[in-house]
Each structure stands twice: as C-alpha cells, then as structure tokens.
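dumping this here before i forget
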Amino acid sequence: MLVSIILGSAVATAFLGIQREISGKMALELRRYGANILLEPVAGDGTYMAVEELAKIKTVFWKHNIVGFAPYLFGVVELAADGKRERGVLAGTWFERSLEVEGEDSTVQGVKAIAPWWSVAGGWPAAEDEAVIGTALARRLGLTAGGTVRVMYHGRELPLRIVGVVTTGGYEEEQLFAPLVTAQRLLGQSGAVSRVLVSALTVPMDDFGRRDPAAMTKDEYEKWYCTAYVTSVAKNLEEAVTGSRAKPVWQIAGAEGALLGKLNGVMLLLTVLALTAAAIGVGTSLLASMAERQKDIALMKTLGADRLQVTAIFMGETMFVALVGGFCGYLLGDRLAELISRSVFASSLETPLWLLPIALAVSLLVAALGGILPLRRAFLVEPVKVLKG
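structure:
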C-alpha cells in the first residue's frame, strides 16, 4: 500500500510540477515555426507604417511575451542575372538587428529571431549591398551564393551580391531578401515598412478568449486584456504602433492552441490514471489485510465496537501510511520532474513547495477511495460465524 501511494503521489507531483514548465517551453519551441501576429497599415494596400514606430513593440504591456519581430517592405521589381530577366518580389527586412529601447534591455530582432527554421545555404547579409534569394527564384535566374543580381525599379538600378540561398518550403522561396534600408532606398520609401511579423508567447484560446471585446463588461475586458490570448496581445500591439492594425495568424495561433490544449489534456489524463492505479493498489492491499484480520474485527465487534470505532482504527492506520507515502512521493516526484525537464528540454526545474500539501492531500484522497470497499467488507463481518469454534 505504501509503495502504491508513493508511486501515485510521485507521478502526480511530477506532472503537476512540470505542466506549467512544459506548456511554457512548448510554446517557446513552437515560436520557432513562424510568427503568430501580423501588423499591417490600417488603411490597407498602398500605405505604410513608419519604421521608427517599431521600437514601441518592446514597450507594450505584453513586451516580455514578444519573442521577436521582423519588419518587411515589399516591391515588385525586375531582376537580371547572367542574361536572364525575371519579375520578382524584393523583400526588405531586418536579418539580425540589435534594438535599443530606453529603459529596456537590448534585444535582437529580425528574421533570424522569428524564423530560425529557415535553411540558408551560404551566409546572412552583413552589408547593405548583400542579399539572400529564395531557392525557386535562384534556380530560374541561375544564381548561387557568390553571384550578383541587378535589381531594377522605375529607372533605378542596384546590384546586389547573393550571399545565401534560402529554403523554407513556402512562398519565401520566390523572393529576394535584402536589408530593409536597401529596399527602402531602391523603392523610394524611406523609413517605411509594409508589414511586421510578430512572434509572441500566448496561451491557448478558450471560449472567453474568443468573445468580442466590444461586447464585454469593464471587468470582463480587463480580464481578457490581462490574459495572454493571441487576440489580446494583438490588440495591445495595435494600440502601441501608430497607424497599424494587428491580426492573429490563425493558421499558426490556432494550431499552437490546439497542441498545447491536447498536451495539458494528456498530462491530466496521465495524472488521473496514475492516481487511479494507486487507489486500486491501496484497495487490493487493504482487502488482503481485512481478510487476514477478520478475527480481530469480529472480536472488536463482540466487545462492543461500533462502525465508527472500526473505521477510526483501520482508516487511521491507512491515513498514517498515506501521509508518509505522500511525503516520500513528493520527494520522488521532485526528482522525476527534474529528470523529465533535463531529458526533454535540457533545463533544470525546481518543484514548487506548494505542491507538498497537494501531494499529501492527493495521497489521503487516494487512500480514502481505496479503503471504501475494504471497509464495507469489514462492516459485513459476522462475529458469530468468524469466532465459532
């Protein structure tokens, strides 16, 4: 019985201890696969946002949830290389830029921060006359790393040296990526950006998170605004960046929310299964104990013990074992949580002390549930039949 309670308490402690840790780390891992918020000009096509507004992104209420962002300026240009000409999209962006915000720590923003899954054959641009090109576009122009492409737009021409070829499996393979200032100069849009992709840590959406903020009461709106839903973080960004509107990228945000929700469900299911197995183990042990101690129970009843006294004696023993098992299970669960965290996420984890009373309470509950059937058997013992002879 003690072993059953220790194992059940250990598994419950470990899973509860790492649930928040796993959710946070999984959310951070998922941020590696694409931005989940799109900032664009409020007036739509043909308008731009000011690049100097972008620093405000790291000053909003949810600034610590912003993993990174990358601005883009797009333009359809003529590309020429090795006698081949092609119309294509020039995308000016930040690749890896240090952002200084007054009162905040310096951060690195750009494509490398929000899209580390990009595979680049070669290197990243380090100068204004360098660029990387998508695999499909490079194939049509016959370009490789080290080659040069001439970019032409409304009478302006700029040669760019290709330092890398990008493979993403998406639309990026059809574009030419250059430093933002280079694209602004060529397109004649100084200080302008077409859109900003933001990667933010968020919590899974639920029914409350999907409600229309305009229809909420003041208290409901405060609760929604102070919960890291992708919609509330987007609203926060929209308020900060002048002339912008923010929209969740639902393909990313929806998939993340579903995955994190399923992960939490699996953790809860495993915890319930572990505790159920522990309760069965306790019940089986107590049934065997009751069968061995039928004469003791019969003698107690003969001497005048009522149901409350029989319950107090046997459940008292069980509760004492449960407390010992709960404490040992908490210590074992702490080590198990640390092992899981290091094996899966290569990071340490300290189980919070507030899980100790929970582990003890869970152990008492498991012991009580496991003792229901054996105790009923004890109530059915008939002293005359057991003590005869």
